[in-house]
Amino acid sequence: MFKKLPGDETQSLVSTTPDTAVVFRPAVVRTPAFVTLVIFAARLVAGLVRLVWRHPIASAVVAAPCAVAWWYGWRAGLVLVAVAVTVLALWCSLHRPSFLRWAGWRLLAFWRFLWVYRRHWQAVMVVSGLGRHLRGRDYLPHLVRVRCTSWADVVTVKMLHGQAVKDWADRLDHLAHGFGARSCRVSIARAGRLHLVFPRHDPLAVPLPAMPIPEQASVGPVCIGTREDGAPWLLNVHGTHVLVAGATGAGKGSVIWSTIRGLLPAVRADLVEIWALDPKRMELSFGRALFGDRYAATPAECADLLEAAVAVMQERADRFAGLQRSHTPTPEDPFVLVVVDEVAFLTAYQSDKSLKLRITAALATLTTQGRAVGVGVLAALQDPRKDVLNIRNLFPDKIALRLDESEQVDMVLGDGARDRGALADHISPVPQQGAGVGYVRLEASPEPIRVRAAYVSDADIRAMAEAVAA
Ligand SMILES: Nc1ncnc2c1ncn2[C@@H]1O[C@H](COP(=O)(O)OP(=O)(O)OP(=O)(O)O)[C@@H](O)[C@H]1O
Description:
By secondary structure, the chain is α/β, with parallel strands linked by helices. The chain has two domains: 49-199, Threonyl-tRNA Synthetase, Chain A, domain 2 (2-Layer Sandwich), CATH 3.30.980.40; 222-469, Rossmann fold (3-Layer(aba) Sandwich). The chain has twelve helices and 18 strands.
């Protein structure tokens, strides 16, 4: 029986019959050195062809000076390099975005493909357990492509047949540290292929100042901060309900105030009314003038205000029935946004049982029936466990700011969110670095996105209240 095995594997294969001392050792046929050399040379050529095919620009940048130096001498090669560097530097200083788009990121991707990912690929795959060693042969996932954006490397990988996304999601730490990144996130590119996102630096590490107040009166989506990829973070509050979960000091206030700030022109145009429930009397009391008489602090006042919102909702539902199925804000029927700071004070931690029942029932009614008639809820919560807020699943949109425990991430963003890289429990507790930072899931994609809300200072809130009063 002949079995072809690479390397020295065969030498260590020994088999014995179960009850005799007969030992079988396979014969080892040594491959002549020149055959091995030919195989290595063929692999090298194939690798080079693949490299040129995948990175034509970067390959040309390296190959052209070498070719000129070969044919016309090293001085000519040096001149070509100097001219190319000068042209690139000029292009970069004159029009940086187009330079980065067409040359900068591609050159960086080429460099990182070779130096970071190709170089360490085998070791990281084997040590993390994503590669397999079967019958003397290494089976490794295929490194397809590296693309660089302003803040991260996006690595496309072809999984081994039979691997699942979970196999990769379970090893994000190994991958991040193996390739020298702070973290890693995984998403599906297409069947059998994944995108691994390795941030090179944190674009959300510095606090953002309050967003400018929009010029147009609109009920949203409201720009409340920025996403990790540099795009604005747009939050929809009209036609949905939003739950913001975060430990104490996570920056829930910045999400609430940035939203109110974005709606300010609509408040002034009577298209939006903001009703505030402030059981802690710390957060919303600061901009009390913005809410007029629709501000409640004690549990009894909060229950009354919530029931008033339910009454508005039911009156509209009676009027709209059979006439319209969605709400368009008008001064007669403005969009009502009920903002609740620390909703658990009114539900789980409320000692008066009848108040607790009234509040929970009103919140459940608003969150199940308010969307279509223009009544929305934006609630903040420190502890997202079900026994603290049993109606948390009635909020279609959820934001996970810094959380204390890893299990809380999936409670907020849904199953598997943490495995896919929503590390809300790793957000820094230092306010400068981590307050207002969080993860969201957009409707169009199951992948969590890292975001940071802009910080609305006390002075900004005061100016907002004065603007509305004027
Ligand atoms: N977006 C932000 N960017 C930078 N710093 C922020 C941001 N939001 C809040 N901070 C800072 O973090 C501190 C805590 O924020 P905030 O009070 O909003 O947290 P919180 O989640 O509402 O906490 P709590 O539940 O205890 O009220 C603030 O005093 C402020 O200095």
